[in-house]
TrEMBL record:
It comes from Romeriopsis navalis LEGE 11480. Residues 152-304 form the Aspartate/ornithine carbamoyltransferase Asp/Orn-binding domain. Pathway: Amino-acid biosynthesis; L-arginine biosynthesis; L-arginine from L-ornithine and carbamoyl phosphate: step 1/3. Carbamoyl phosphate binds at residues 54-57, 81, 105, 132-135, 266-267, 294. This is Ornithine carbamoyltransferase. Keywords: Amino-acid biosynthesis, Arginine biosynthesis, Cytoplasm, Transferase. InterPro entries: Asp/Orn_carbamoyltranf_P-bd (IPR006132), Asp/Orn_carbamoylTrfase (IPR006130), Asp/Orn_carbamoylTrfase_sf (IPR036901), Asp_carbamoyltransf_Asp/Orn-bd (IPR006131), Orn/put_carbamltrans (IPR002292), OTCase_ArgI (IPR024904). It catalyses: carbamoyl phosphate + L-ornithine = L-citrulline + phosphate + H(+).
Length: 309
């Protein structure tokens, strides 16, 4: 994975399909302890700059860097001068002198790009309103663990055409997975991301966006959902509820999918809204494996961009 040393991950499109495959293979080897890279010399320091709340991303990155002999500095936004108006460019140039890698969770993708433009160290997207690439690394690892392959499977994402839908479009297209997005009118993924996914797929897999949830789920191998109102959209939750209610993953929808289908959710979940507790805790759920794989997938990413493998 030496070709990833020093590189940013702002969206999954920053990787080639071959690099994505190698990252997933490395994540599997790290999980099984087949390989156990360890920093030599000065331990690397990971910075976390989070403008939004986080459980899985914050903890998995923190544990991952410590597993390879590094350390982490967690910088909540209100503890930095960014919250008092310091320009991102100035903050970025200073952090670049202290840290070896920086994971950022923010709202605007352009802020992430500004950090990347002003830092020599790798910048990792830990979630923006546009994309959540690290989550999809773990998702694809989980799918491959379950089915032994990626190409030729069908994944249906149900709900808001948000950052998760965007990253799943790209990740599935890069992996040869047929991807279907079922979302209400007005909540479809950004057209430019859909076109980007279709260009990546290049006819090797299907990229479909529809409002017809039953058609999207029929025969699908993987069902995926996310909350109906993401961080920053809480004021719209009540308005969104009746619009998205037909898009709930429940027992009836599961019956339309392939009988061996699995269910994924990036978490946190609102049980009884986008997914029922019955499905979430049922035998087809792989949600907890998926959450664990955040650690292994991000460890693979960290050791790659730091040049430890």
């Amino acid at each position: 994975m030496g070709e990833l040393k020093g590189r940013d991950l702002l969206t999954l499109a920053d990787l080639s399909p071959a690099e994505l495959t190698e990252l997933l293979d490395l994540a599997t080897k790290l999980k099984s302890s087949e390989v156990a890279p360890m920093a030599q010399g000065r331990p690397p320091v990971l910075g976390l700059l989070f403008y939004k709340a986080s459980t899985r991303t914050r903890l998995s990155f923190s544990v991952a860097i410590q597993h390879v002999g590094g350390s982490v500095i967690d910088m909540p936004l209100n503890a930095t001068q960014v919250s008092r108006g310091e320009p991102i460019e100035d903050t970025a140039r200073v952090l670049d002198r202290y840290l070896d890698v920086l994971a950022i969770r923010t709202f605007d993708q352009t802020d992430l790009q500004t950090f990347a433009d002003n830092c020599e160290m790798p910048i990792i997207n830990a979630l923006t309103d546009l994309a959540h690439p690290c989550q999809v690394l773990a998702d694809l690892q989980t799918v491959k663990e379950n089915f032994g392959q990626l190409a030729g499977l069908t994944l249906t994402y149900v709900g808001d055409g948000n950052n998760m839908a965007h990253s799943l479009l790209l990740g599935c297209a890069m992996s040869g997975i047929h991807v279907r997005i079922a979302a209400p009118d007005g909540y479809q993924p950004l057209p430019e991301v859909v076109q980007q996914a279709k260009a990546i797929a290049n006819g090797q897999s299907d990229v479909i966006c529809t409002t017809d949830i039953n058609a999207a789920i029929e025969g699908s191998n993987i069902l995926y959902t996310d909350v109906w109102a993401s961080m920053g959209q809480e004021d719209d939750a009540a308005t969104r509820m009746p619009i998205f209610q037909p898009y709930q993953i429940n027992r009836e929808l599961m019956a339309i999918a392939d009988k061996e289908a699995i269910v994924l959710h990036c978490l946190p979940a609102h049980r009884g809204e986008e997914i029922t507790a019955e499905v979430m805790e049922g035998p087809q759920s792989r949600i907890w494996d998926e959450a664990e794989n955040r650690l292994h997938a991000q460890k693979a990413l960290l050791v790659s961009v730091l040049g430890l493998v």
